[in-house]
Design brief:
The chain is an all-alpha fold and 298 residues long. It has helices spanning 3-15, 26-34, 42-50, 53-63, 77-84, 86-98, 111-132, 137-146, 149-157, 159-172, 176-184, 188-198, 203-211, 222-237, 256-264, 273-294. It has a single domain, classed as Hypothetical protein af1432, CATH 1.10.3210. It binds fe (ii) ion (2 copies). Residues 147-148, 177, 188, 212-213 line the site of one fe (ii) ion (FE2).
Length: 298
């Protein structure tokens, strides 16, 4: 890719003109749930979610999934908030509202595959955070959910170029960001950063979106970033990637994210990767079922 061609792509990204503004419901949800959990009230959350009927219906599907730990059926947004608690409901509502970000007309990536990867990474990040005693585990789910926001930007703004990158990644079995860099001179991390900043996401989310494939280059929020980066890799290596098999042998202990995370969470030293991977395989089917229930192409 010539320097000039890359410049043209960067200019198209700068404008973000074809990119929608933050979805009507996502902005208020993010702002509401950014407040400390103790200051949130049930009625406020119920009112916010109920403003959008399709969002409320999707939230109920998720609230009734074993992935969110519910055994007893909930049949209203209010009973879901009461039964699951505010933190789970925040995770659910934000997951459903980001579903609305996919462009109607796109051929670069199967939307179901993309959402399975995003939801899978959110769930793995949350479980991983708990397991290793990561202090900020409340943030892990959201960071996992949004880490690949840049893929959506590429679908909106650089669809043809992105399609070529996907084709290259698929044919050579290489990670998507490497194929993007080779064909476009930039990756979904570059495009995601622009959108995350434009939407005024929190600094740690901007960092995760921007550096999850290059954790060693980041200067802030490195532990969260490393956690999401390892969770992303776990998903990609275990059937929740971008719809193709990456021909890589991965040793998690040699990943730059591992050393970074170890500094914050010493229990990572004795982490049972095989068991965690086995557990992930156990909920793959439920991720597939849930996404097929939630995602209805328009
Ligand atoms: Fe990524
Ligand atoms: Fe990813």
């Amino acid at each position: 890719m010539s320097g000039e061609a890359k410049e043209v792509l960067l200019r198209r990204l700068e404008g973000l003109e074809q990119m929608p503004s933050i979805p009507v419901i996502l902005g208020p949800l993010l702002r509401y749930f950014e407040q400390p959990l103790e200051s949130l009230d049930v009625q406020g959350a119920v009112d916010l979610i109920s403003q959008d009927k399709s969002l409320a219906a999707q939230c109920l599907h998720m609230a009734n999934s074993p992935l969110f730990g519910r055994w007893q059926k909930v049949d209203s947004v209010r009973s879901a908030v009461v039964a699951l608690g505010m933190q789970r409901m925040r995770d659910i509502a934000l997951s459903c509202s980001v579903l609305k970000l996919m462009p109607d007309d796109q051929t670069g990536i199967d939307p179901t595959v993309f959402w399975e990867h995003s939801l899978g990474c959110a769930l793995v990040s949350r479980r991983f955070a708990r397991r290793i005693g990561f202090a900020d585990h409340g943030k892990a789910y959201l960071a996992g959910l949004l880490h690949d926001l840049g893929i959506l930007v590429n679908l909106w703004i650089l669809p043809q170029e992105f399609q070529k990158a996907m084709a290259l990644a698929r044919s050579r079995g290489i990670p998507l960001h490497e194929a993007e860099s080779e064909t476009m001179g930039l990756s979904h991390c570059d495009s995601g950063r622009r959108l995350a900043e434009q939407w005024d996401l929190t600094p740690e989310l901007v960092e995760v979106v921007s550096w999850h494939h290059q954790v060693e280059s980041a200067s802030n929020h490195r532990a969260l970033l490393a956690l999401v980066s390892l969770s992303d890799l776990l998903c990609r290596m275990n059937g929740l990637g971008h719809g193709f098999i990456e021909e890589r042998q991965v040793n998690f202990l040699e990943q730059p994210g591992f050393a970074l995370l170890l500094k914050e969470c010493p229990t990572l030293e004795s982490f049972d990767w095989a068991r965690f991977t086995f557990e992930l395989e156990g909920y793959l089917d439920e991720v597939h079922r849930l996404v097929s229930l939630l995602y209805r192409p328009k």
